[in-house]
Structure prediction request, 927 residues.
Amino acid sequence: MAASSSAANSQSPALKTYFKTPEGRYKLLYEKSHPAAVPHHSHGRTVSQLTVAYLKEKPPNQNSAAPSTSSSSGGVRSAAARLLGAGNGSRALSFVGGNGASRGVSGSSRIGGPAGASAGSSCSQITANYDGKGTYLIFNAADTLFISDLNSHDKDPIKSIHFSNSNPVCHAFDPEAKDGHDLLIGLHSGDVYLVSLRQQLQDPGRKLVASQHFNKEGVINNSRCTCLAWVPERDGTFVAGHADGNLYVYEKSKDGTADCSFPVIKDPTQFTVAHVKSSKSNPIARWHICQGSINSISFSTVGTYLATVGRDGYLRVFDFSKEQLIFGGKSYYGALLCCAWSPDGKYLLTGGEDDLVQVWSMEERKTVAWGEGHNSWVSGVAFDSYWSAPNSDESGESVMYRFGSVGQDTQLLLWDLVMDEIVVPLRYHPPGGSPTYSSGSHSAHWENNNIIPAGTLQPSPSMRDVPKLSPVVAHRVHVEPLSGLSITNESVVTICREGHIKIWVRPGHGESNRSNSSSDLAVSSSAVSKDRVVTSSLSSSSIKGSSSSSKQHSTVLFS
Amino acid sequence: MVMGAAGSKLEKALGDQFPEGERYFGLENFGNTCYCNSVLQALYFCVPFREQLLEYYANNKNMGDAEENLLTCLADLFTQISSQKKKTGVIAPKRFVQRVKKQNEIFRSYMHQDAHEFLNFLLNELVDILEKESNATKTSPEASSSKKLANSPNHNLPNGTHKEPRVTWVHTTFQGILTNETRCLRCETVTARDETFFDLSLDIEQNTSITSCLKNFSSTETLNAEDKFFCDKCCSLQEAQKRMKIKKPPNILVIHLKRFKYIEQLGRYKKLLYRVVFPLELKLSNTISNADSEYSLFAVVIHVGGGPNHGHYVSIVKSHNHWLFFDDENVEMIDESAVQTFFGSAQEYSSNTDHGYILFYESTGGRS
Prediction:
C-alpha cells in the first residue's frame, strides 16, 4: 500500500494509466504539473484547487489577429466551449444538455498515447496570441497560480502568476463575462482579484495584470477566502465565501470599497443577511451563514439556488434572490468539504470528513443515499452532465445519474444512481450480518418521509436509516491525496493537493485518437455511452468494496 | 525560551477570552520525559478525569499518614496546576516523574519512551491503586453479597465466567467493552466473548482516515484452513466468521495509531509516517446497539521524528474551544486548522515528521 518512495513527481509505477467502467476504458491522456521549483513542503496548508475555464473566441469588435479556427491543430480547440459550463458542478454556469455540434474535430491532433503524434507539436505556436477559443486549467500551488492548456500534451503550465503577499487558494471562471473580466482569484489573506484570463495569457510577465481588487488587504474580511462563484445568469455578480462563515456578494461594475462596514454579528449561530446602504460600495451584501469555515459553494444551473457546505458539517441550500434558507442537513459526522448540483437541479452531492458521498434530494429536502467507498475524506464531487443512461430508452422512467468523487485516499470513484430505486427504501443489512440485527424494522421509519419544513436544519440520520450506494469504479489515480475533480464532455480531470493534474479521457475518445481517422471522430461524439450496452454482470464485477455490501446493493446501480 | 515571556504571550493571545478558572502550564522536561509530559497534558484537559482526580485529592489531602503512590503524585500535580495564582507558566512535575521511574524500571532510563505504553501503564496503575483502596475500605458483607450474586442464575451465561471487576472512576471514564463475535459457518451459532479496553489500537494504512481504520478493525474475518474455529456446538473445528464490535462505547475514546511496526526484514521497529486523517467529530457505527455514539476530539499526542527510538512528543489540546500546543514547558495557542498538519505524510520521503499518535475523543452524549 505504501507509496513508492521513488515516485517523486513522476508517474508511480503502481498507478495504472487506465481504468475500466461498464462503458469502456478511461485512459490517462495528459498530465499537467507545475515547475518542481515550488518547495514541496513550504505550502503544507495551501491545497491545490482546479478550475476548468472555457475561453470563448475573442469578440470581433476587439482588434486582434485572425482567429485560428480553421487550423487543423487541436491546441486551442474545445469547440463546445459555451456548452460546457456545468462540467464542474460547483461552477455550473450555463449548462445545455448534449454534445456540442462541432465536437467532431476537436480530437484530431490529440496525442493518443505515450508514443505521441507529431501533429500536436505545432499547437503552441498557433495559440500564442490566445485570441481563439481554448479550454484552460487554472490551478494554484503554494504562492503561484498556474494556467495550463487542457488540450495540449505539454506537462508544464503556459502561464505562472506569482503572488508575493499571500497564497492564492481558490478561483472561478465566467465564460459568459461580456467585458472579458472573467477570472476570480481568492487569496489566503481574504483578498479577491478579478482579471481577464486572456489578458493574463497574453502578458509575458509573472504578475497579475489589469486586475480589479476587492477586499483589499482583508479590509472587509481578513479570514481566508475559501471559495468563489459567479452567479449564473446574473452578469457580473459573484460571491466569495470565507473561513469565518461569512459570504459576500459583489457586483463587478462597482469598484469602491468606501463606507462598507457591516453590523456586528450578534448571534454567530444564526443566518443573517446584511446589505450596504451606499449604492456604490462593494461588496453589496454579507451573508453570515455558519460558525466556522465555509468550505465550498455551488450554484444550481440557472442560479436560483446556492448551496454551501462547511466546517459545522451542514449543507445549506438557499434561494439566492430571496435570501432565504430552503433547507439544511448534516453530514454523518465531521465537516463537509465539497458540494455539487445535478445538471437538472434536482439533486445535490456533498462529500466530507465522514468518508461518505451524500446524495441529497431537493424535493425531499434531505439525504436520500450515502455512497460508501472512500477510505478517507471526500474532497471533490461532480455530476457527469454528459452521461446518458444506457437503459434510459427502454424504461423511460428510471433516470440515471452518473457522478464522480475524489478523496484523500488518492482514489477516483464513479457512481451510478437510479432514482426509482432510491425512493423505494432498500433492505439494508449490515455487512457481515450481525446475528443480533433484525432486518426491516427501520425501513418503515425511512418510508415515512414527510416533507421537511422550509428553513430548517436537519440532524444527521442514523447509519442504518440511509440507503447505501457502492461505486461502479474505484481507481487510485495519484500518489498524493486528491483535492478536486471536474468532468468535461471529453474527460474526467483530477487534481491532487500538491497541484498535479491528470486528464482521463472517456471511452471512445481515446480510441479515436489512436485510430487517427477523422470519420471515427465524427461518430465519437455520440458514441460516448450509447453504443456501449451495459450489462448487469459488468456492474457487479466492477463494484469495489466489501463483498457482502456490494452484492446487496448492486440493484441500486442497474435496475 | 524564556518561561515568563511564553506565558504572557499566551495570555495576550487569549486576552479577555481567557477561560475563567483555567490554567495553561507547560511542564518541565527532566531528560527525555516528553512522553510523560505530552500524556499528562492530554489527561489534564480530559475534564472528567481531571475533576475526579481533583476531587480525589480534596478527599484525601488530610490523610497525612497515607503512603505516596502514583495516584497521589498525579492528584498532587493536577491540584498544583489548577491552584496556581498565575494563569500561565511552567511547572516541574518532579515528584510524579520520580514516582514513575521508581515504580517501573522501563521508564527509569533516559532513553526515548513510548507515550502509549506510558499511558497504558499509568491508567492500569491508577486502577490498581483505586481497587486496592476500595478493597481496604469496603467491609466483608459486601464481598459476600457479591459471591451470592455470582451464584445466581443470571450469571449462568456462557460468557459470564469472568469475575465482575470493581468499577473505579478510571473505568467509568475510559473503559469500553468490545465483543468478539464468532459465527460458526456450519451451525450458525454465534459465540460472543467480551473484552474490556481503555484504548483501541488501530492498524494504519497510507492515505486513510480513522473512520477507515476503525472499519478495518471491526471488519469480518473468515477463519478457515489452518486457522479454524473450535465450535462448542459442533464439537469440532469449523470454518467461522469473526468480527469485533463495540458493545459499550467508552466516555473517553482513546485511539492509538500503530505507527511503530516491527519490520521482520529489518529486524527492528520502523515508524510508519503514513498520512491518517482524523476528524474533529467522529461516530462509532460498529456498535452492537446500532446507536451511533458521537465523539469530539479534544487532545492529540504527537510523535515528532523519523524513527521509533528517538524523537520528541508534544501534544495539542482543545480547551474551551481554543486549541493549544504543548511542547514541554512551552504553551502556544494554535488555530483549529493547524490540527491537520499532524495527519502525517502522504509520501514516504516527506520531511514532515509530526504525526498524530494517540487521539483523545470525548463523548458528546449525542445518540442519533
User: Anything to note?
Assistant: The two ends of chain A are 35 Å apart (CA to CA). The CA atoms of residues 150 and 510 of chain A lie 15 Å apart. Chain A has nine helices and 32 strands.
